[in-house]
From TrEMBL:
Protein name listed in UniProt: DegT/DnrJ/EryC1/StrS family aminotransferase
CDD domains: AHBA_syn
Source species: Thermoactinomyces daqus
Pfam families in the record: DegT_DnrJ_EryC1 (PF01041)
Keywords for the protein's UniProt record, in alphabetical order: Aminotransferase, Pyridoxal phosphate, Transferase
Amino acid sequence: MKNIPLLDLQAQLATIRGEVLTAVEKVLDSGQYIMGPEVKAFEEEVANYVGVKHAVGVGNGTDALLLALDAAGIGAGDEVITTPFTFFATSEVVSRLGATPVFVDIDPKTYNIDVDQIKAKINEKTKAIIPVHIFGQPANMDEIMELAEKHNLFVLEDAAQAMGSEYKGRKIGSLGHAATYSFFPTKNLGGYGDGGMVVTNDDELASKIRILRVHGSNPKYYHSVLGYNSRLDAIQAAILRIKLRHLDDWNNARRQKAALYNELLKDTPLVTPYAAEDRKHIYHLYIVQAEDRDDLMAYLKEKGISTGVYYPVPLHRQKVYESLGYGEGSIPNAEYMAKRTFALPLYAELSDETIHAIVDTIKTYYNK
Ligand SMILES: *Cc1c(COP(=O)(O)O)cnc(C)c1O
């Protein structure tokens, strides 16, 4: 069997190469390399796609979170409740602003933040909640928004892994007070470099973020606040405009392939992903659970099948957060899942035959 990567960006590029090269050339010939018409057009297209009023392109998904929280006034002394079962950026930005991330446990079925656990941690210092639509599955947004309304909290959806996901028929990103996307190359909508975006229906928040991304200036060279240098690159915007047109097809292909995996893996000891009925999960990653994960992953590697662990250390157990005092066992579901879960190869161009071959290899492992 040929080596099977976890994700094959080259296979995707092959399907859009001509369009991408033409778009890049157009930007090169335009002389508009920072901001300009491609960024503006892409912002409008994303706002339309998500169904919100504003979309603001920034340098990457981490900055999208950072600028959104900064614009919302999160800072020293504030607490922000989030999940520890996510990529580090989600809480890193909270700490960067001088606020404190408060980690609560996840629902072991969806891997998303457990709303009852959020309730237990709300106090007078709590200012915001960051639900992460982890692996492409929407979090319980209705319950989260209800809680936020009651306690007057800012809700920022970290939708880096969930562009195109839906919750009760509505696009993820349109449910919180604001949401952020990452266009890191491996994301479902990924560029060929870094990029990120904040979306919101809040006029004031959007205009603050637009000012923050250009050094806090408005107009140029007149600085009213301390900002950042964080803009979406024009070349990336041009590429992402092309890719956005394919996003639904790619997401649907992922869903079909995930369904095939689910079916074929039924009679193996692996726990396949749970997808809530009222949600459209877009499988940014196809995550399974195995008791003997590390051994199985080593076996698959030997057979040429790449897999990955997302993420090996939950955030509350990271060295940098030692001083927050979360001991081993303090957030049990997240810790348990960090030891059992891993991702199998999944991308739109992955063939059904290859999925069959991967599952056969898994079955051979269990029957050996
Ligand atoms: C990728 C990712 C980010 C950060 O995005 P970058 O563009 O890499 O800065 C933030 N949160 C989550 C959940 C992510 O997966």
